[in-house]
Amino acid sequence: MKTNLKYICLFFLYFQLGNAQDVHFSQFPVNTLHLSPAFCGVFMEDIRLMGLYRSQWEAVPVPYLSFSGTGEMKIPLSKLGGSYLGAGIRFLYDKAGDGEMSLTELAVSGAWVQQLNATNYISVGFELAGYQRAFSLEQLQFGNQYNGDVFDPSLSPRELGLDQQKMYADFASGVQWHFEHEEKRHLFDVGLGVYHLNRPKVNFSQQKPIALSMRWSIYGLFELEMNEQMDIVLVVNQQIQGVYAETLSGVKFRYYLKPPGWKQIAFELGSYYRFGDAVIPVIGFLKGPWSVGFSYDMTLSDLQVVNQRRGGPEFSVVYSITKVKPLNIQKSCPVF
Length: 336
Description:
Porin, mainly beta, 14-stranded antiparallel β-barrel, 5% helix, single chain
């Protein structure tokens, strides 16, 4: 059977874009800049570094892998009370399939975080990103490479009008409400992010442009103090892109062996659910400024026939830095 590279590329593209289109992670609260640029710098510490690694569909002959890393920091605005700027950088790499379809992204984000009162903040954020999509022909076979008897990889597939690499710029924006209780461990984040505002062209074929649909991200993250030793964490995220949609929600319980702070020690246990697709057990461990997590997708959809319910493991790590604030030095004599 003759395989046309154009259809293979379109298949890879739409497979990558399917099921909410953009790359997704199960532990989405550890990938906040993928939810909205308005999340940039919205956290209690001064600097935050986060990383995610996902290996998907090990039961399929060619597994898929994804990696995301982000770094964020606050820039105080001393003359504007509790308001500040958030600055961040995001890196993403994803590779899938026999054709090694890859996506590499480098983005910079910025947000204005406006304090409304002692507990409420509103932020508006923007992101500028550069993307590269590419694939390889080395592991693919085409009808033109059969000499009549056997497959001959030295023969040209004779597919014209195709690029194996595509680069483009991308823009995103978002808005968010953040709540911090003054005394209890109550944290709420509700927001909206819109990605691919410029609808970049992502096709490999030179004949028919394909514009990437805008991705809408609606989310809510809620941490509630139950008592001195336990918190409950509720999360929900709705991704909409073109005709595709994905809803992911979940709950975790966090138990403190040592109280929150620089020397905190805590465990997390819970489960997420990707509607119509998978149930995802989640565990985590917090020690001081470090937080690590592990989740595993257990497929419930029709795809379980192929992957034997083994959706894939995902690992996360977060490191937060709180700067030591300088003391206010008062001079004893006004002359000096």
